[in-house]
Structure formats: structure tokens, C-alpha cells
Design brief:
Blueprint lengths: L5 H4 L1 H4 L26 H14 L3 H17 L3 H17 L3 H18 L2 H17 L3 H15 L5 H17 L3 H15 L5 H22 L2 H20 L6 H18 L5 H17 L7 H17 L3 H16 L6 H17 L3 H44 L1
Length: about 400
């Protein structure tokens, strides 16, 4: 079974982050709204919306962001309205609602221009980068991230800077550009350390672990391999210190990447590495039980546990882990087909090796079925991306005349 490897699993949570001042971290509680004047509520509502978003509660995130927009506009606070709209862009981009994401990102620009403040423009440009990330337009992602950083040169904000650098890190990790992966992961972390957003900082530490993994692959220097684990442990420590402020999914990713680290870098005979891998895979599975959108992490953890069971020739448990992973993934309303295909392929291979050819054929057919569904899904999404890209370019051309 193909697991969510170190440089890939981060995409689960890292692509669409929104950004807000971290100064109000200690009052991230809806009950605090009652203690604020109407005029002061939009900032907290945006933070609460972001909290819902990172925990996968997208409906709540949109509702809180929209409430914040309405109140902010009532007081002509265009900057706070821009921040709230940025949450909406992020949610729509994450959920592949490209048209809504584009409309929301255009609203951020309009509101930011009315505010006449560099920080508002920086948020608006960042929102544009999120939209273009959703439709895989690398050139525009880079353009708007650079525009956002330029605006922040006039009004610094390390929180937003960290998010922008993180976006650039993600873009370059998809390109396997090792130099820029290191550059932007470090820049994101340096800025995140100046904030009190521990979920952001935790993700930045995971980014540094990915950079270290790239460095080790290219040089085979032990210091880089050790750094992979060092940064993942720092990410985990933040969850243990601040469980209210680090998303379970962020912690789950750190745990599963530690398990993957021991699986990939240590021999089958290393008992301590095996014990560590099993422990961290179990932790990832446990923390994601009942979590919204935690199925991929759970499936990956179960896949690792199955691998170790096979190594021990405990084929009953190996099968049980894979079957549980399959059950977890098909329980999701819209399955993540990449992971599902990995699971059914692993099951087909397992049954073939055990001589159960009937079961092997059953899951081979499921591999074909899910591969076809993935193809159809990608075709539909690509058509939607092309449509919104075309409409965007057409609008840009009209405005240029």
C-alpha cells in the first residue's frame, strides 16, 4: 500500500490557510462575542470562522465569516470585511467550489480597495493566490503572493507573511524545487514564530521536516534525516502544549509522518524503530477518530499497521487493518479516490499473495471501479477549472480596454 509520504501528506491541511492577527488567541470562544461591542465583533468572528475551517467544519466557517462581513460592512470596516471574505475564499477553494471561490476573492479585492490600507490589500492578494492555487495556476499564485508581500512591506504582519510564505512553500514542493522548498519553509517558520498561532507554527515545523526530507534524499547526510524527526517532534509538542489551538488533523499528520519516517528509514530488524512506528501510527488513528475529514490519516495509519503485521507474518491482523482502512474510506460521503485506490490495490495484492484469488479479483475490480470514478471526477473538476479560468481571463480583457 502506498502511504501518505512525508512530502505529500502535508497537502492534506497545508494548501488553504487563512490569516488573522493572533493577538486574540486567548478569546477564541463564541461566548466572548457577548462581551464585545457590535463594532468589535468582526475580528473575533473571523478568528472563530478560521478556527472552524481548520477543524473541517466548513458550514460553520462560512456562517461565522458571513456574519463578520455583515457587521464589518455596517461600520464600513472594509479591512475586517476583507479578512472575513478570505476565510470564505479558503473554504470554497478547499471544497473545490471554484466559481464561489472566484466571486469571494474578487470581493476581497473590491473591499480592500475601498479600505485604502496596505494590510487589506495584502489579504486580498493572498485570497487571489488561494483561488489560483485551487485551479492550479502556478504563475498567478506566485504573482499574487509577491504582491501581498510587497503590500506587507508598507505594513508588516508576520502572521500573514507566514501564510504567504507557506503558500509559496507548497507551490515549490509540488515542483520538487528543493532550494525554494527550504527557503520558503524557513521564511514561513521565522514569521510564524513571531505569532501565537500554534496551528500555523505546527504546520510550519512540518514544512521544515519536509524540507529536511528533501535534503536527506539529495545528500544522504544523517543530519538531515535527524532533522526530519526533530521538526516533527516540535510540531507534536505544540499540540501537547496547546491542544485547544492546534487542530487534531495537524497533530495527526505529524504523527503519521513520524510513523512513516521509521518505516522508511529503518530496517525490518530494528525493533525500537518498529515499536515507534506502531505507536505513532496508533496515535494518528486514535486522535482522528470522530474528527471531521480525518479518514485519509486514519487509513494511512492503518496501512502502516498492516505493513508491520505482515512483516510479523500476522496475516489475520494485516487483513483486519486493511479492511478497517477500507471501511473508514468508504464511510466518507465523497471518498478521496487516490487513497481509496491505494487501499483496494493493497487488499487485492494481499489476497493474491495469500492464494485467495476470488477476493483478489473482487478488490482488483474495485480498483478499476474507483480509478474510473477518479478519472470522471478529475475530468469534471478540470472542466470547471477551465470554465472559471476562461471567465476570469475574459473579464480581465474587458477591464483592460
Amino acid at each position: 500500500m502506498k502511504y501518505l509520504a512525508l512530502k505529500n501528506i502535508i497537502f492534506l491541511t497545508g494548501i488553504f490557510f487563512c490569516c488573522f492577527k493572533a493577538g486574540a488567541q486567548t478569546i477564541l470562544d463564541s461566548t466572548a462575542l457577548g462581551n464585545l461591542s457590535e463594532k468589535d465583533k468582526p475580528a473575533l468572528l473571523s478568528q472563530l470562522a478560521e478556527r472552524s475551517r481548520i477543524n473541517g467544519d466548513y458550514m460553520s466557517a462560512i456562517a461565522k465569516a458571513q456574519q463578520g462581513v455583515a457587521i464589518a460592512l455596517k461600520f464600513k470596516n472594509f479591512t475586517e470585511a476583507t479578512k472575513a471574505y478570505t476565510v470564505k475564499v479558503s473554504v470554497y477553494a478547499t471544497t473545490k467550489q471554484f466559481i464561489l471561490s472566484k466571486k469571494a476573492s474578487d470581493s476581497t479585492l473590491s473591499l480592500a480597495q475601498q479600505s485604502h490600507k496596505p494590510i487589506a490589500l495584502a489579504y486580498a492578494y493572498y485570497a487571489q493566490a488561494l483561488f489560483y492555487n485551487a485551479i492550479d495556476n502556478s504563475e498567478q499564485i506566485t504573482k499574487y503572493c509577491q504582491l501581498a508581500l510587497k503590500s506587507l512591506g508598507k505594513e508588516p504582519d508576520p502572521y500573514l507573511s507566514a501564510k504567504i510564505y507557506y503558500q509559496l512553500y507548497m507551490l515549490n514542493s509540488r515542483r520538487d524545487d528543493v532550494k525554494n522548498v527550504n527557503k520558503y519553509a524557513q521564511a514561513a517558520t521565522d514569521n510564524a514564530l513571531q505569532t501565537t498561532d500554534y496551528n500555523l507554527l505546527s504546520n510550519c515545523y512540518i514544512a521544515l521536516s519536509v524540507a529536511a526530507d528533501y535534503n536527506y534524499a539529495g545528500t544522504k547526510k544523517e543530519v538531515f534525516r535527524d532533522s526530519v524527526l526533530y521538526y516533527l517532534n516540535k510540531a507534536q509538542s505544540l499540540y501537547e502544549q496547546y491542544p485547544k489551538y492546534v487542530a487534531r488533523k495537524t497533530y495527526g499528520i505529524a504523527c503519521i509522518n513520524v510513523a512513516d519516517y521509521y518505516l522508511r528509514y529503518f530496517s525490518d530488524t530494528d525493533q525500537q524503530a518498529k515499536n515507534n512506528a506502531i505507536r505513532y501510527a496508533g496515535m494518528a488513528n486514535e486522535v482522528m477518530k470522530g474528527a471531521i475529514n480525518g479518514e485519509e490519516i486514519r487509513a494511512s495509519s492503518l496501512g502502516i499497521l498492516s505493513e508491520y503485521a505482515k512483516r510479523d507474518k500476522n496475516f489475520v491482523m494485516a487483513e483486519a487493518y486493511l479492511q478497517e482502512a477500507y471501511s473508514v474510506m468508504i464511510s466518507k460521503k465523497v471518498p478521496y479516490y487516490y487513497t481509496l485506490i491505494n487501499i483496494v490495490t493493497a487488499l487485492s495484492s494481499f489476497y493474491e499473495q495469500r492464494g485467495n484469488y476470488e477476493k483478489a479479483l473482487e478488490f482488483q475490480k474495485k480498483t478499476t471501479e474507483y480509478s474510473n470514478k477518479l478519472f470522471d471526477e478529475k475530468k469534471t473538476l478540470n472542466a470547471q477549472k477551465l470554465e472559471v479560468q476562461y471567465e476570469t481571463e475574459k473579464k480581465t480583457m474587458r477591464l483592460s480596454y
